[in-house]
Amino acid sequence: MESWLFLLLVLAVAVFGKNTSLIIASLVVMTFKALPMTEKWLPVIQNKGIDWGVTIISVAILIPIATGQISFKDLVSVFRSPAGWIAIACGVAVALLSRYGVAQLAASPQVTIALVLGTICGVVFLHGVAAGPVIASGLTYCIVTLLGLSFK
User: Fold this and answer.
1) GO cellular-component terms in the record (predicted)?
2) Considering the entire predicted model, what is its pTM?
3) Which of 83, 108, 117, 152 has the most CB atoms at less than 10 Å from its CB?
């Protein structure tokens, strides 16, 4: 019963904050929880969900290559600008931090509640987005803006 109340609270905060992603996520988890075989599928989703999410984000990131919006010429130009190198460094940094973060979650699952609360607050009240590549892009934006650089 406590888990249902917690999920309803998350849903209420998401609705209050008008965050569609969190609303959908809450409803999906509540639906899974209501279905038979919950004890079998929820741990699988918990263990593999981050990998699945990263895969979906990676697909979305690769679409501009498939549509021709990004070409080899664009790739070469990245290596010719300081902003491009900053973007590469931020991508590497976020990937490394994510690796340690996943290990931290496995070693200290109680940290999850604080992370969930912080993520919910950041997404709902500050209109943030919970996504690794977006974090790398945000870091790149901050550094490039501070240094007055551009990608051209």
Assistant:
1) plasma membrane
2) 0.63
3) 83
